[in-house]
Amino acid sequence: MLENLTNRIGNILRIVSGKYKISDSDIKTLLKDFRKTLLDADVSWSVVKHITEGIRNKLLDIEITRKVSPKDIFVKIVIDEFLTILNLNSISNYDDLFNKKGFNTILFAGLHGVGKTTSLVKLANLIKYKNNKSVLVVSCDVYRPAAIDQLKILSSSVNIDCFLDFKLTDDPELIVNKAVNYARAKHYDFLIVDSAGRSHIDDIMMTDLVKIYNVCNPIFSFLVIDSIVGQDGVKSASVFCDRIDISGFFLTKMDSDAKGGVLLSLSFLTKKPIFFIGVGEKISDISYFYPDRIVSRILGFGDIHSLVEDINEKIKDDSSINLKEDQVFCDFKLDDFKNQLIYIIKLGGFENLVEKIPGGYTIDKSLLDKFDNKFFLKMIAIINSMTVKERTFPSLINGSRKKRISSGAGVNVHDISKMLKYYDKMKKLFIKCGSNKSFLESLKNKFF
Ligand code: GDP
Ligand code: MG
Questions:
Q1: Which site among 1, 6, 267, 355 is 20 to 30 Å from 216 CA-CA?
Q2: Which ligand is nearest to the CA of 112?
Q3: How far is Cα 227 from Cα 253, in angstroms, rounded to an integer?
Q4: How far apart are alpha carbons 100 and 62 in whole angstroms?
């Protein structure tokens, strides 16, 4: 997620790294590189202009004191500029969003294939299980019966009720009307409506959408935008916003978006907030949109908040564990390491974790391929076969100990040497990444 942008900005930060003073020519180079980076990331020109002018004005204004390094000042200015454009109308409290009393409807709109149906079910699932509300979903895409089936299958996979008591010859308005009446009669808290998408904007789709909007009078209407389509997504967003009262965006496929152009352009150009981001194909792959966490990621500081939330969510059945932020970088002692490996597997693999830790973007991708779940399971088996003493002092593990451990774990001696080597590498890697945290912390303390 956003790796190209993060890498490029990491290179720009190196220009000022270790300097005591930023010269005029440094400012010129910084701004030139920054502009090019944002344009290559497919950020809209007017947004690029706004950001780079903001950075230039602040850099020219700022008085450099000996206390703060030019790099920290530059980072702070960049953070401010990104936050200014991402914070526009952003959501301050997600807890209250779906806690309204009484019956409410939510409308999903967007082009075909952007992830509308998947995102709708992700949100239905979140409202049902996080907000403890009863939810009914309905698709009024009579043009594509397969789309109705898709919603039925996806929603039933997470035990969400789907309204199907209509005919394919009914028009979308009538279907929504029937669904609203049914949902009210059955005392559902929410009805979420999936509208028909097209591969491009056309008048029939828009007219239908306006009619559906008027029938269901939604408390929220979310426009789903695919983050990887680039500026076309931003353009289509403006057309939808002109026709119906869009509350904000559900930005999908962020897991595949290395650039970040749509993310950085959307709110600024439409003056509407991003509510949610889709970060994978699974129903649980939905995140609230927190501008500061995204900016932290873009600048290569990782996203420790989300990582800790993720871990706590995924291990919530294990009541003995409630991870705190500083424990993410816990000692990489062999003994604790086993538990870490189990969490990593539960989290969906090492790559998922590395993405969110400070400096994680600098990690060699070829290294990640070696650390797959099969490898972790083997490591767990090896650690299980060690004595407490060996786990505490791995340097004790000599040839004869390796032989004993290997027969206990059902692996060969070579695997043990390999495992100890990787353990050592990972330990260094985590220490390296963890040490960047103090930089983020110091930034936070200085500026926020
Ligand atoms: P719709 O036509 O707008 O309703 O789109 P669908 O919900 O059918 O999704 C189209 C494709 O995008 C499907 O293969 C989804 O699994 C995929 N998809 C949706 N959201 C995400 C996401 O956040 N990340 C990824 N990687 N794929 C997604
Ligand atoms: Mg669909």
A1: 267
A2: 1
A3: 6
A4: 45
Q: Which class for 123: exposed (0-12), middle (13-18), buried (19 or more C-beta within 10 A)?
A: buried
pLDDT in tens, 263-321: 999 999 999 999 999 999 999 999 999 998 888 888 877 666 676 676 666 655 554 44
| Per-residue tokens: 138 | 């309905």
Alpha carbon of 252 to ligand 1 centroid (Å): 7
The identity of residue 48, as a single letter, is V
Structure tokens at 340: 């870490």
Identify which ligand lies nearest to the alpha carbon of 119: 1
Strand order in the sheet with 220-226: 161-162, 135-139, 190-194, 104-109, 220-226, 248-252, 274-278, 286-288
Q: Residue 159 has which token pair?
A: 């035990």
Output the pLDDT for position 423: 79
As given in the structure block, the two tokens for residue 319 are: 């009541």
- 3-state SS class at 190: strand
Cα 421 to ligand 2 centroid, rounded to whole Å? 48
What does each C-alpha distance from 44 to 7, 234, 267 come to in angstroms?
A: 20, 9, 11
Closest CA relative to residue 429, chosen from 375, 354, 369, 348: 354
